[in-house]
Structures are given as structure tokens and as C-alpha cells.
Amino acid sequence: MQGWTPESGKGQAMTDTTTTAATKPEAAGAKVLPGRFLDFLDPWGNRVQVVEYGDIQFTKAPQVLSAMGLDLEKSDKALKELADKGITF
């Protein structure tokens, strides 16, 4: 995550869609932060940014996704960014 350091107290969570995850932090007692991204403070004060798996360059092996019961796809933009780095599927 850009700008992350261990001292910054930021974490990152991935989801299939941010729409699915949007109501869950607040329902669990977290403070949702204003802005264009889904960022929130967990009950311990850690900042968490939720990102859609399909939109980031991070990948999980197909076997891991299968074991987790997930069927997730990468966006064309993310696939191009990965291909530009020599990573193809």
C-alpha cells in the first residue's frame, strides 16, 4: 500500500466488491472516514482501507482462491498494469 509504514498504523483489506463491504465496518462499530475510498478506523484505532481485489495488482494463486471459495476476476486495468510488469495469466 502506497505510503504505508509499520508506524503509520494503516492496514489494507480486500473484498470482491466495496459495495458488499460498505456497511460492515460501521455495523461492527468502526468509524468510517470521509473520502472517496472506503477507509475506516477499527475499534483499536487502526486505519483500514478496503479495496476491490479486481482493481489492484496484488494476486492470489488460483489454488488459494479456490480453497477460499472465491471466484474473483481482475479488471482490465489491473491486468494491463500486471502485464506491463511482465506478469501475465
SSE map:
Layout: E1 10-15, H1 18-21, H2 24-27, E2 31-32, E3 38-41, E4 47-52, H3 62-67, H4 76-84
Parallel strand pairs: 1-4
Antiparallel strand pairs: 2-3, 3-4
Defining key terms:
89 residues, alpha+beta, 2,3-Dihydroxybiphenyl 1,2-Dioxygenase, domain 1, 4-stranded mixed sheet, elongated, disordered N terminus
Fraction of helical residues: 25-40%
Compressed to H and E, one letter per element, the order equals EHHEEEHH
The counted number of beta strands is 4
Instruction: Kindly report the average pLDDT value.
Output: 79
Would you write up a description of this structure?
With about 90 residues, the chain is of the alpha+beta class. The protein has a single domain, classed as 2,3-Dihydroxybiphenyl 1,2-Dioxygenase, domain 1. It has 4 helices and 4 strands. It has helices spanning about 20, 25, 60-65, 75-85, and strands at about 10-15, 30, 40, 45-50. Strands 1-4-3-2 form a 4-stranded mixed sheet. A hairpin with a 5-residue loop joins strand 2 (about 30) and strand 3 (about 40). It is elongated, with a radius of gyration of 15 Å. Residues about 1-5 have low confidence and may be disordered.
Give a short summary of the structure.
This protein is an alpha+beta fold and 89 residues long. It has 4 helices and 4 strands.
